[in-house]
Amino acid sequence: MSDENGLLELRNQLDTIDNKLLDLINERMQIVHKVGALKAKSGGAIYRPEREKAIIERLEKINQEKKGLLNKSAIEALFLEIFAISRNLELPENIGYLGPEGSFTHQAAEARFGAMSSYIPISSIKGVFKEVDTKKVKFGVVPIENSSNGIVNDTINGFSKYNLKIIAEVVLDIHHTLASTCDKITDIKKIYSKDIAFDQCRRFLTNFGLDEAELIPIESTTKAAKIAASEPNSAAICPHVGAKLYNLPILFENIEDKDNNKTRFFIISDFENAPSGNDKTSILVKFPNEQGALVRFLNDFNDAKINLTKIKSHIVEGNSIFFIDFDGHKDDENVKKVLEKHKNSVKILGSYVKEVNDI
Ligand SMILES: O=C(O)C(=O)C[C@]1(C(=O)O)C=C[C@@H](O)C=C1
User: Fold this and answer.
1) What mean pLDDT comes out for the span 69-88?
2) Per CATH, which fold does 177-252 belong to?
3) pTM recorded for the entire structure
4) Using a 6 Å cutoff on CB, does residue 113 contact ligand 1?
5) How far is 25 from 82, CA to CA, in rounded Å?
6) Is 53 in the pocket of ligand 1 (CB under 6 A)?
């Protein structure tokens, strides 16, 4: 058989498989439709991250056993899109994220909800909380901490003000690029970016003599790309996708000082997750002004064999509060007891499936 005929034959086989795949996906969607109808009757939450996680883990296991050609991230990418389409079929729901389009938070949102979902950029973290609270969007995506810059105050303030729940976490590796229409680096006189992005790229800026340029902080790295695309002798420190969005040539990739630069994001909504067996819980704690209050609290966690994974202090309106993460679900017996004992000082922000990529 000639190569051309061979290709035709293989394409015919692919067409037959694609037809079967389409039938199977439609068959799946018929069932999803019934799930949607059930949930509409019972008021159950559409997005069930713990169930999606369990499906992906089961498929990865089967794939390994069968020595399939798909790798873990390919299975995840395929099925996250299927889930996004399923959720839209059950009930179309909008996702509000800290914008603008192309921001790292947008990437975090897409990493979880897939490319087919409906996204709305919101210009502040406070705005994201407000839009979820007033039910203009079903989900909000906000940054909570960066490995170089620590906790994001506006997000803690949002949790203090609103009674919204964390329903999932996403951890992204953060890479910055230097993008500009300038041909020579010495032509760059101004650099636009977010203040924390400048902090994360100090060494690069010094090494390339760019600390001589005027560093202009603005509200987002993607907006920086937009400005630099239209202003001569300027550059932006921005994400790869931000530069692409505004056709801004990338001069240097991965310019962050630390090669382990990560940001953790929360997906927030108005419902609580059921336990998945592999959960983490986040709380805010405001201790009474008594000696030893923090120590007593930590001892109770220790006695209940709860593993604290993070504790960070934060000031809200002059009061010191603690942001704490620990392993387990808020409905686990040992967790429930400790939280009940300290209910006057604790605000539960949510229990959610633990990400493998940690910060
Ligand atoms: O199992 C459910 O609760 C569903 O709604 C179905 C389904 C799926 O497509 O498998 C869709 C959305 C949920 O986030 C989890 C799973």
Assistant:
1) 92
2) D-Maltodextrin-Binding Protein; domain 2 (3.40.190)
3) 0.85
4) no
5) 8
6) no
